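As described in the Methods, two query proteins were run sequentially through the folding procedure within a single session, without resetting any intermediate state between them. The first query and its resulting structure tokens are shown here.
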Amino acid sequence: MSVVKINVLTVPAEMREELERRFANRAGMVESSDGFEWFELLRPVEGTDRYLVYTRWRSEDDFQNWQKGMAFQRGHAQAAADAGRAGGQEQGPGQGQGQGHGHGQGPAASGSEVWSFEVVQSAGPKS
């Protein structure tokens, strides 16, 4: 059964473009991970300042292995190096709450929390 991890990032309006740029710069880092199924960065449209970082995994073990693996470490080490130059810090799915998320010009997000789900039903377009 697939699992979904949603990292909920509170992002001030002035940091939206920066957060999106940072994720774009890390594109491709998770896609080759064993058990990875899907990624989406969801931008809020109205009524909230919270971005959703949606990842879907074949299993909880696959997600945990990715967090312990080299791709995760490389992505977050790069972020930490950038944050160190700017005085910020990086945080990924499953890494605490409220510490900020991002790199470059300091934290792009003012808070973070992770939601976990099991996929019970799913549907796609019929061919």
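Immediately afterward, the second query was submitted; its sequence and tokens are:
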Amino acid sequence: MTTSDHTKVLKQIKGKPAKLKRFNKYNTPKDRSCGRKNTKCRRCGRTGVGGFINKYGLNLCRCCFRDIATELGFKKYS
């Protein structure tokens, strides 16, 4: 199940309203007001699990940041 769409599993229980109601009750993601899962990457939509750059309002995961860092004006020092 992905964080973006929990409805992908509904094909088998589409015609069974009781099971559908119970599935939605327990498997619909919560609306979060704070925490790690609340912030998402602006570019790819990954949740901020590890390596999330929120500084300066970037809101990018580390993979997307590496791709576009030079375009943003950051320099790589080796």
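Strands lie at 52-53, 60-61. We note this only descriptively and draw no conclusion about the first query from it.
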